[in-house]
Amino acid sequence: MKPYIFSFLMIFMALQTVSAQTDQQPSECSITDGCLTYSLNGATRHDEDTYILSYTLTVNCDTRLEYIAFELPEGSDADEPSNYFASQPDFNVEDGKSGKSNKIITDYNAIQFTAKTQTNISNGTSYTFEYPISVEDYNALGSIRVQAKVADAEPSNIEFNHRVCAPLNPMPECRIDRGSAVFGFTGATDNGDGTTALRFDLQNNTAATVKSVAIEIPGAPAGVTTVSNNNGNAYHANYKYTATYTDGILLFEAQNTNDYANGNTDYFIFSLPTAAYNPEENFTISLATNAETIVTGFNTVTCGEDSPISPLPVELLSFKGKATQSGIELQWETASESNNDRFEVERSLDGKTFDKIGSVDGAGTTSTKQKYNYTDYVNRAGIFYYRLRQVDFDGTDDYSKTIAVRLQSLPGGGKFAVYPNPAHGNTVTVSVLGTGADVNGGVLQIVDMSGRVMLVHQVTAGSREIDVSLPELQLPKGMYVVNLLQGTDKQTQKLIIQ
User: Fold this and answer.
1) Which of 33, 181, 367, 372 has the fewest CB atoms nearer than 10 Å to its CB?
2) Any idea what the Cα angle at residue 404 is, between residues 400 and 405, rounded to 5°?
3) Which helix (H) or strand (E) holds 162?
């Protein structure tokens, strides 16, 4: 037990009307039994491991309240010396059944408020009762039973789901509601030692207990640590986990997550090097039960600009581009998709006017992370701007952010490119890039592995791209050689048809 500073806690009971907070609570948090109306108003934090539970009781009949009792875990007292409560003016307070069974009227361990002679709570009067409870005792209770009695009547008994009505860590405003689970970001704090602590809240709305929680850290930096292993200690987590960090994945595996279901919430705290914390990157978070896995992504800066966040049909985690030997390779990831038909890739030379250059099929509807790529076989050096147009099956669309990629030299050192490669469709495009064919022309050949020439095409001066129809050539699946002949110069690329 820890003493409280009287002037800070101000926990003595005050005669008052029901607070506005109860109007915002779920319906099961206000229960009427006979002439008594009980409300569990909520929980407020007092210190690191203690909360104050607040209830309001309204007596709607003309007989006075004799007592009210609130369940505690067996063998526990409220987290405050009971003689403190004895000093409050309206009720005598008994704290726990140990050694006091003649005073506690309930069959279970409880903290009981018995009305003093001069206290008359009746005729529609409301009274608010508060008492401190440790996080450990809060978690030990599957529910909280409450018993009250008015004069000349049998005791009234009701039961509250305190995890719904008085959650210790209510979901923050910055949250993404995916139905089966709600993901909340509560903030990032510079620890002052070269690390930054990030805090996420996860609410499991399914009936299945949480099996694991995984957080993917952008860039997979070294030095990621959890707070006290999130082992269920007060203000670290409500449940127990074993936490491991490997290759950018911070995994919390359940050791004891009984009842982490049906709307219950837990929170996860970890630190990473401040230099590696890039708030413009997204953290991918997944909550897994035995029945399903729910995935989302968080941008820890922009999530606060529109809270709570309404999940988009497609949650785009990242969109990046880089110069390669083949051209400019674009890569993007999604956390989840709903009715996603396709991604259209658009390119611009000035960052203002965009043209569609390709399309990639979407995954439809999925809660599993998806990875995509597209290579733009450009034919000159410079800066290129790209964006994605995501299109649903019903035609609804949305645009990604715009990225810029600098290509300092022609791909392949000026060689021509063949794409898509491997070829799956009806057309293969040959881009002559900056080889000189766009000025002097040349001859294009496709040769099978036995040396038979399957295509001869004259490249006219000024040509940059040539579309080859595979059905017209009737080429079977396999590997081919594509030759570009320019005088005595011969360039070769391999082509695979699937």
Assistant:
1) 33
2) 130
3) helix 162-165
**Exposed/middle/buried for residue 243 (C-beta within 10 Å: 0-12, 13-18, 19+):** buried
**444-487 pLDDT, tens per residue?**
888 888 788 888 888 776 666 788 888 888 888 878 888 888 77
Of 158, 112, 165, 163, nearest to 142 by C-alpha is 163
Cα–Cα distance for residue pair 328/47, rounded to 1 Å:
54
CB count within 10 Å of CB 319 equals 19
* CA–CA gap between residue 241 and residue 162 (Å, rounded): 22
Q: Could you report the per-residue pLDDT of 90-134, keeping only the tens digit for each?
A: 888 888 765 455 678 899 999 999 999 999 999 999 999 988 888
Dist. CA 42–CA 133, nearest whole Å: 12
Tens of pLDDT, residues 160-199 = 999 888 887 666 668 888 888 888 888 888 888 888 888 8
Tell the residue number behind the tokens 């499991």, with chain if given. Answer: 204
Q: What angle do CA 94, 98, 104 make, to 5 degrees?
A: 40
pTM over 0.85: no
Nearest to 359 by CA among 340, 377, 346, 378: 346
What whole-number distance in Å separates Cα of residue 227 and Cα of residue 243?
Answer: 10
The residues, ordered by sequence, that sit 6+ positions from 165 with a Cβ below 8 Å of its Cβ are 25, 26, 28, 29, 40, 42
Sign of the dihedral defined by the CA atoms of residues 437, 443, 446, 450, in that order: negative
Q: What is the DSSP letter of 173?
A: S
Which helix or strand (DSSP H or E) is residue 450 part of? none
CA 23, distance to chain mean position in Å, is: 28
CA torsion through residues 74, 78, 79, 81, sign: negative
Integer Cα distance of 105 and 321 in angstroms: 70
Q: Rounded CA gap, 183 and 315, in Å?
A: 13
Q: Which residue has the tokens 């006979």?
A: 34
Q: Which three-class secondary structure state does DSSP give residue 470?
A: helix
User: Is the separation of the CB atoms in 284 and 297 below 8 Å?
Assistant: yes
Contacts of 428 (CB under 8 A, 6+ apart): 418, 419, 420, 421, 467, 468, 470, 495
Measured CA to CA, the distance from residue 361 to residue 377 in angstroms comes to 19
Nearest to 276 by CA among 302, 251, 313, 248: 248
Nearest-CA neighbor of 495 among 437, 419, 411, 410?
A: 419
How many angstroms separate the CA atoms of 434 and 414, rounded?
Answer: 6
Q: Is the dihedral of CA 11, 16, 21, 23 positive or negative?
A: positive
Which letter does DSSP use for residue 469 in this model?
E
Query: Percent of the chain, pLDDT > 70?
Result: 81
Tokens 């081919």 belong to residue: 480
